[in-house]
Predict the 3D structure of the following.
Amino acid sequence: MGLQVDIIKKLPGFNLQVFLSCEQGIIGVLGASGAGKSMLLKCIAGLVDPDEGHIKVNGKIFFDSNKKINLPPRERTAGFLFQNYALFPHLTIAENIAFGLDNLSKNDKHKKAVALMERFNIAGMAKRYPSQISGGQQQRVALARALAVEPEILLLDEPFSALDNHLKNYLIKDMLVFLKEFKGNTLFVTHNMEEAYRLCDRIAILKSGSVETFGLKEEVFKKPASFETAKITGCKNIAAAMRVANNAAEIPDWNITLSISTGIESDNGFVGIRANHILQTDGPGENCYPVWIADESESPFRNSLYLKIGSEANNPDDYHIQWEISRDQREIVRNLAQPFYIYLDPRRIFFVQG
Amino acid sequence: MNLDLSPAWISIKVTFVATIIIFILGLFAAWWMNNYKGRWQGFLDGIFTLPLVLPPTVAGFGILLLIGKHGPIGKFLDLFGVNIIFSWYAAVIAAVVVAFPLMYKTSKGAFEQIDANILNAARTLGASERKVFWRVAVPLAWPGIAAATALSFARSMGEFGATLMVAGSIPGKTQTIPIVIYLATQGGEMKVALIWVLIILAISLTAIVLMNYWNSTQSSNKLGAGRE
């Protein structure tokens, strides 16, 4: 059971070379634009043919280059939720949802469409056209339409990227409820780590066509296994590091030597600490450093301070570390004389191989 | 003045039959080429479009080469005692060849405008290629297909050069309105020519207006035009 993907697809610029294997659950595929995320979904759905490899879903072989198996999309029943929802603009909501149900009798088809519309709270708009309903409703229609054919696997291609923040929060909550009911695999493609974290059980990080990291989301975020993973999961502070002891690394760029509680596996690599894991402290000590403020940026609820360790900053771009704090904390920091001390908790610092 | 109305009937008959054939051939060629991504793409597209950029006399010459007495198709048909040169069938063939690119190009453009995701969505929902074509592609491309049909109709109606070469100008048999206008003008019968000009104008205009009207009621029914 579950999903097994092991494919190679040559693309202009890079090769998509993906190996993924997973039992039930929601997998987030996280990667920068152009990393091959959408291409992976299209290969699974059968809209694009891989060059080599195999794809197996719930024991059913979708594609196998050795056995010369390549099911057309209509025989794969992969529920695909497109970024723009791709509703049929010339059909009503009810007709859209019933589109894939031609194998049922007219009566059953109608019954099933009605049941789905009720479950997705769109029963009131059965006779309307997609252009006459809101973006959030369109998304629910698209999901209902995809689930109507009882797919083996659900493929979600950045379904939230076209929505405003408020609606997005609300729809992610909705989506979670619907996905929990779905008993197959779900592959959710996004470039937004927050969406991935909220929706998924496991996360795969895709970089130029290959899976860099694949694991439980908590692990992936807590201890990124690579430089790219650290970056994509939103770590702002990453610097080159050299091992000087079992539990200490020198960071030449920052002019400091850090204690790290997890073991260091190689001589050269990178250390990272998340911008919100840095603490302010009173005085010198282990992993405590005097800092000057180089620059600051404000967002509605949080502030980012750009700090330089060890000496005063010459210009706003002359900084080492980005520190994210609440507005209240910012007021406290405002009353401190510079330099003040920050504490980089050894348990919060991670080391990745170079 | 005693006007022989046969050119009107011949023109209408030839144009309707030709438009139906062009509609079917052009639509399928457009859809097929829209999905075909092989290396012959540019070449095939060029072949399908060629009659549009060549003088109709060249098209006529080409048809003669194929279906004339010594042409491969002509020889084959001769085995059954059939000769289509200088019949109204030949006029239909001439119109089809000359107007086909308009149907092909315009409806291909309409198919290309469809969001590929929408067609792919239909495929992932279990639709066969036939269902994708009839239930999704054709309805969505319909305004373009209707325009293509109207253009092909008008072009067939006005076809002159190729028709003259392959069907000739046999009164009551293959003499169409454009040919009558030409002959009347040559013979100095300006009044007769004018009458035929007005007749062809009326037929073409009526057909195109009807098609536009039909098309606009179709699309506002189907798409709800985004409003209620």
